[in-house]
Structure formats: C-alpha cells, structure tokens
Amino acid sequence: MPDAARLIAALCICCVGYVVSVVFMPLMPESTNFGYFIYVNACIGIFVGWTVMGKRAGRGVTAAINNGFGGVLMLVLWCLFIHSSYQMFDRAMANWYNGAFDALLAIFKFMAEYGLVMLNPLVIFSLFAGGLLSGLATEYAWRTWR
Questions:
Q1: HSE value, Cβ hemisphere, 13 Å, CA-based, for 93
Q2: At 15, is the secondary structure helix, strand, or coil?
Q3: Confidence class for position 110, pLDDT limits 50, 70, 90
C-alpha cells in the first residue's frame, strides 16, 4: 500500500545511492567507464527504500535508526551484486571463464574487490549519515502523514 513513509524512504535512499556513487567514482581507476552507474544505483535506492524501509516505518526512533542502517546495508549489497553480475556477464560474453561455476564465483570476487574500495572513510561516513537521516526522515513521514 503506497504511503508517505514509503515515498520518503525511496527518495532518501535514492539520494544516498546518488551521493555515495559520486563519492565512490574517484576511488576507481581513471580508465573505468561508469556508464549508467549513478542512475542504476539511484534506481536500486528507490526500490530498496520503497520495499525494505517503507514497510518498517512507525516503530519508534530507535527502530527508525536501525531501519535506516538496514536500508543502506541492503542498498550496498544490491548495488555490489548487480554491478558485479554485470561485470561477470560482460566477461562471460568474452569467454573469460571455463564454466558456470567459475563465472558465479567471479561475482563474489568482484563484490569483494568493490567492497574493499568502499572501505574509504568518506564512503563509510556518507553511508552512515545517509542511513541515519533516511531512517529518521522515514519515521517523521510516517508520524506526520498517516
């Protein structure tokens, strides 16, 4: 059921995905072609905010903060998985892998590599602050516009 909390959660996590993508891009090598990287992460943020955070609103301030951190964690995991899968699929079409198991294993290898790049303090602070503010904004929206 659509409500204000789901909309605010979707918009907030979308913004977090956008900001973290902009912060993340300079950490990668200069030859990296990002293409629709920012837009894909923002769309994943909309989906995660609507489905994960929006339905858990209305349980108090502590739960709202946890909800925000959970939403950001899901955003990071889905973004890592989708971009790693795309990287694997791109290489699979160029016959880099000997079999399906090697290709599936490559997804988790890419997720680990990108995750290590994300250990930058600025990225972590952006995720932390975005999760905190998103959770509180979602809770405020649920309380204000029931």
A1: 5
A2: helix
A3: very high
